[in-house]
Amino acid sequence: MGRLSGEYRVHFQHPLRRVLPWVLLPPLLVLGGWGLYQAGYAVGSDFQISARDEARDLKRRVTTLERENRRLLQRNAHLERDQLIAAEAAERLRESVHDMESRYRAMEEELTFYRSIVSPENVESGLQIHSVTLEPSARGGEYVYRVVLTQIRGSGVVEGTMQLMVTGRQGGSTVELQGVDLGDVDEGHAFGFRYFQNLEGRIRVPSGVTPRSLRVLARTEGERPREVEQDLAWDAALTTKGRR
């Protein structure tokens, strides 16, 4: 109640006006929160669905890539196996060709050798020295010799002895070695054949001697003895294998 003089005014308010805001505020807050929750849930659901779809697509791509990778690995393994088989086949083919070429060359050499015996050109009849080779052995100063003797236009058996002589240098002097000097206790290599014979043995050059040449001397026995000889430079007598 105010004063009637006009200095004060008295206002009357209904009691609900003070209580109503506090009554309405909680429901409004609840409704606002629920709305925000629903909006967030909707956005989150959309994002979750999108992420799930993307994960499913990625999984399908990974599965496809793994399948393709396995296929490529299998193909690579097959190619490597085919390449290995082809390489082995090519190597066997090269070996076969090399073997055939070697056999062909050997047959040609053998044929040439037989022709030189059966139908020689400008060669005197009788005993001949066809070839001489030397090859170093594993023991120092020791050599393996191979001498092929032939009989040209002969029908009977020819017999005799073959000897080797080595000429070299020792201490500034020339020396000639033969027989026991070369370790040949038999003083020669006996032979006996109708058409040809391969003679093989070993000689040993004494330490300190530098060989320069080799002489091969073959003598036949009988009523009409025959002697043939052949001189070779030492390096010429050594085989290609021996010179390495």
Automatic annotation (TrEMBL):
Q: Which InterPro entries match?
A: DUF6776
- Bilayer-crossing residues are 20-37
* Pfam annotation, one family: DUF6776
Keywords attached to this Swiss-Prot or TrEMBL record, sorted alphabetically, are:
Coiled coil, Membrane, Transmembrane, Transmembrane helix
Q: Which residues form a coiled coil?
A: 48-110
Entry protein name: Uncharacterized protein
